[in-house]
Amino acid sequence: MMDPRGQHCPQAPGQDPLTRSVPLFDPAQLPLRDWCTGSREDAVTGLVAFPDFHSHIPRAIAAALTRGGLVGLAIGDVDGLKRHVEHANATDPDCYGHLAGNKVMAQLGAMTRSWFHQQPWTAGCAATFGGDEVIVIAELDGAPGFYRAVAELRDRLASELPVTVSFALTFVSAGYLPAERDLSRWKHTFTDRLLAAVDRCLFTHKAARRDSGTEGGVLAVTHLPLPWVPVQPANEDILLPLPTADETLHVLARPLGTRGQGMLLLPCAGPAGLRGQRLRVSFPNGTSRTAVAVSFRGQAAIPHGTPEPEEPGLPLALQAVRERSPRNLPADVAAALERAGLDWSTLPAHEQAHMLHLITESATPDIRSARVTAAIDAVATRTRS
What we know:
By secondary structure, the chain is α+β, with helices and mostly antiparallel strands. The chain is built from 9 helices and 12 strands. It has a 6-stranded antiparallel β-barrel with strand order 7-8-11-10-9-12. A hairpin with a 5-residue loop joins strand 9 (277-282) and strand 10 (288-296). Helix 3 (81-91) crosses helix 4 (97-117) and helix 7 (331-340) crosses helix 9. The chain is globular.
């Protein structure tokens, strides 16, 4: 190697800052399975390069959905990378700032590759998207498993990188395919709408968290709005369960006006029964209130004051409300209610007293267990009625 003056440069890889910031990846270990085969790798992250991803993936998505499959898509964006680069530039004499950014992205790519190869998906890939974003897409057996897998990746990255990574994700099924598919570019148009919906969800949540002064590393969920999809009974395969216990679920809620009443549609399956499910809902302006989520054509929705659309949606944080239990409720009864997600107060007071008397007077553990089960069945029946 020659320098600009025609002199030979010393071969000292250990002293080259690029060696520390951009590792050499094995192209045979690209994070892909069946989809995007033959793609080039991104030189910094070792993930599938976006131009090849964008060329191959529309056909893969269309084929999966046409045969009735379920596809999950997640986009992750590094939080505060510019701030990290500026800090490194000001404090690290051995590494100017943009090499610090390269190092972060190389680590992110290596960890994403390792994580991807541990997943059970038969088809999918992980690619770059923009300068500091990553895409994960896969054909799935169910939505909850993909949500948990992306949450695991987010947590791994947070534990190893000097910055956090925020994600947004969605799910799509055959019902979202456009009715008219005779044009040659409908697959790319469909894919771009899918990418745009997730990217807008991601940046809407990131902006809301910046405005409120809270940390990054959020995992947000949206459902795909397309002009050719009418309001119809929801496909529960693409919806997550409502949060339970101490879980917090970040969502992009879509306003809907129905019969003059404003509702916020959530990317979650609607609760069973007529009573709905109480949630603690946190809004982007910092306010919180308790709302009752009901089922709207199979999809969870909460009342909202105005039916006017808010594009691209409203970023919310959802938490389950732990229902109050009567004092002196036996521990086994309380635990059984918790597992079933039921409210003891659904029963009239006289039935509560009668059942508790029978349970506490049980002669053997087997009889007690059977009476606890009967009590839970009675609560469930009351909840459905």
